[in-house]
Amino acid sequence: MGAGWAVVPVMNLIMGVPLKVAAACSGILIGMGDCIAVWPYLLAGAIIPLFAAPWLVGQILGGIIGAQILIRVKASSVRFILIGILVFSSFGLITKGLKTLGYTPAIPGAVYIVVLLIIMAGVALGLTDKFPKLRGER
């Protein structure tokens, strides 16, 4: 996991950048770092260009499609989706840390799926207009 989970909240909450702009800039910032970081591996022959080419095409198409979707989506919807991603990521990091420290046994994969489904249901409820208090509306 890269630093994308931290870039968007920092840009939005601390720097005052609008959420949609912060989400778009996050991808650009991380993409620039990834472009530079990949060269040593490519020059050492650790990355086979034939296998990396489909990934590159997917990145470009995903960026274009994501930008078009981001134009049409409300900022509050983006906020709920990002909160869901952060909650699920933090669950995974906390359980991994507790397992590494020896406080808990390995968590079965089914538990991660159940947690993901619960978070997705919460995000879906937040995206509906039936709960205006969740969206910060009156």
Automatic annotation (TrEMBL):
Transmembrane residue ranges: 21-42, 48-71, 78-98, 110-128
GO CC annotations on file: membrane
Locations listed in the record: Membrane
Pfam family, one: TauE
Record keywords: Membrane, Transmembrane, Transmembrane helix
UniProt entry tagged with the keyword Transmembrane: yes
Primary site of residence: membrane
Membrane topology label: Multi-pass membrane protein
The protein's name: Uncharacterized protein
Annotated organism of origin: marine sediment metagenome
